[in-house]
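Write out this protein's structure.
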Amino acid sequence: MTSTPKPAQPISPAAYEALAGALKSIFWYKRDLERFIRLWATDHPSLLAHMDFSGYKWATADEFVDRLMADERQYRDLSLRMMAEVSHLTSFPALKRHESAESLIAGPRFLLCSRRAPHARRTFATQEASCK
């Protein structure tokens, strides 16, 4: 008697949306976002085929995440690894070289910290303190 493996539960659309939102916040410059995506997708050239990196940063992040979601069977592991990696970021070197680095870094730090503990209703100051 063999048991068939239970199919993996689909990744929530909200999780994909959170990944797209994080990518838009973590990277101020398009080139940094492109580099991050290319490094993560090195083993998946078809994922990058005809990807337009010349447009708006938010459009690039959305397109990339849409591609992950559209073929979840093929990119499930990559998606989950990226989501985990991004959700554990505490440092944002791509934002540090911007003249408004301090205020830019506060946004993704708050976004990522609030997603780590969504049940906790905290103020921005409390979030900041808990994520340092």
